[in-house]
Specification:
Blueprint: E1 2-8, H1 13-24, E2 29-35, E3 40-45, H2 51-60, E4 64-65, E5 68-75, H3 80-92, E6 96-102, E7 107-112, H4 119-127, E8 132-135, H5 141-174, H6 183-197, H7 199-210, H8 216-236, H9 238-243, H10 252-285, E9 290-295, E10 298-303, E11 312-315, E12 324-330, E13 332-335, H11 337-340, E14 346-348, E15 353-354, E16 359-360, E17 365-371, H12 377-381
Antiparallel strand pairs: 1-3, 1-4, 2-3, 5-7, 5-8, 6-7, 9-10, 9-11, 11-17, 12-15, 12-17, 13-14, 13-16
Helix pairs in contact: 5-6, 5-10, 6-8, 6-10, 7-8, 8-10
Length: 382
């Protein structure tokens, strides 16, 4: 087996030797070749290589392995079992270090070694599980919103059709209505509910079964098809049931009502997800893009991603606070309504805590950054 690791932090030939020495000590490694020019280490082994062990060996020497963190959209998830299936598929992919999937936002965060595995391999792993992984390049914000609305409209159409037909089926099953209570008529009404309205469940259930897995869709499919197929047999072969002494009862209402109620839940869920997504996008817009940071050569405006804990940040009136921190000098009032919901500005003096994304209103102040990036209060909310 042969893999390539991108190495960070090497500055001389001694660094190359240190990395080679560290990687050679990892079990099953047979040969190591480190290139200072390309900052890459080629590792060969007689068996499967433990990537985490290789990375830890490099870190122990004071260097690091370059990894990539990427965000993806995941289509087709409907329950916690789907989340577990997608996470399992991503984590089993060789070269992936971490993977977390969020059902509410239909997103996945993946950390991987780019020289070992790429986005196409990640997409294939997820597709094999019956879902679809979309990178940020695959879809714009407008297209994402369009796809969400299209999905909601499709569910709504299925629900309306299913609801109307289920009401007729239920009435025909519970009451003795001429024509409508005829089992053949009930079969005709139940068929589009089972095979059109319920297809979203059956398709997802089949994808799970192909991978020897089950989820909520499997339960819906098994339950509705049991009632539908039994009732179909009663309609097509009524004599068989009479000979064995079983009544000619049909249960088309059971399968139809189950599909209708689950579809109602999906419609409400899709609507809630859309509102959640919009709220998250609004919160993301509150993040500052740059920060005025004190440097030895004087105040310098840098991207907010370059701010580190301990940096002294200067905030002027009307500006958004870039990261979380503690005021060290100055006095001001800050609008924190986006975090607390409180409309009255919060007074800030030395020692007060400030939060990224909030708005400085009146005075200027300097504060020491304490939490940056994904550690800020706003990032944790998102």
């Amino acid at each position: 087996m042969k893999i390539v690791l991108p190495i960070k932090g090497m500055t001389c030939a001694a660094c190359v030797a240190a990395v080679e020495r560290a990687l050679s000590k990892v079990p099953v490694v047979s040969s190591v070749e480190v290139s200072f020019a390309s900052e890459r280490a080629t590792v060969e082994a007689e068996g499967p290589l433990d990537i985490q062990a290789l990375i830890q060996a490099v870190k122990d020497q004071g260097y690091d392995v370059l990894t990539k963190k990427a965000s993806f959209r995941v289509q087709g998830m409907t329950c916690a079992a789907c989340v577990a299936a997608v996470e399992r598929a991503l984590r089993k992919t060789y070269g992936v270090l971490q993977a977390s999937v969020n059902l509410a936002t239909e997103s996945a965060q993946v950390e991987f070694v780019p020289t070992i595995v790429g986005v196409p391999e990640l997409k294939k792993a997820v597709k094999d599980e019956g879902y679809e992984l979309l990178s940020e390049e695959d879809t714009s914000v407008d297209e994402e919103e369009l796809q969400r609305k299209r999905h909601w409209n499709d569910l709504l159409r299925r629900f309306i059709l299913s609801g109307v037909l289920s009401a007729l089926i239920l009435a025909g099953s519970m009451l003795n209505i001429p024509v409508l209570s005829n089992p053949v008529v009930l079969l005709i009404l139940a068929t589009p509910v089972q095979f059109y309205a319920g297809m979203v469940f059956h398709r997802a259930a089949w994808a799970a079964i192909k991978h020897f897995s089950t989820n909520m869709n499997t339960l819906v499919t098994v339950g509705t098809f049991s009632a539908y197929l039994y009732s179909l047999a009663v309609v097509v072969f009524p004599g068989v049931f009479e000979r064995v002494g079983v009544g000619r009862h049909v249960y088309f209402d059971t399968s139809a009502v189950i599909i209708t109620l689950i579809l109602l839940g999906r419609v409400l869920e899709a609507r809630a997800r859309g509102k959640t997504s919009e709220a998250i996008k609004k919160l993301m817009k509150l993040q500052a893009k740059t920060a005025l940071v004190e440097r030895p050569e004087g105040p310098r405006e840098v991207p907010v991603e370059e701010v580190i804990p301990g940096d002294i940040v200067i905030v002027k009136p009307g500006e958004r606070i870039p990261v979380d921190g503690v005021v060290v000098e100055g006095y001001s009032s800050v609008d924190e309504s986006m975090l607390t919901g409180e409309s009255i500005p919060s007074e800030k003096i030395p020692g007060s805590t400030v939060y990224g994304g909030t708005v400085n209103l009146t005075g200027s102040f300097r504060f020491r950054a304490t939490k940056v990036g994904s550690e800020t209060a706003l990032a944790r909310i998102i």
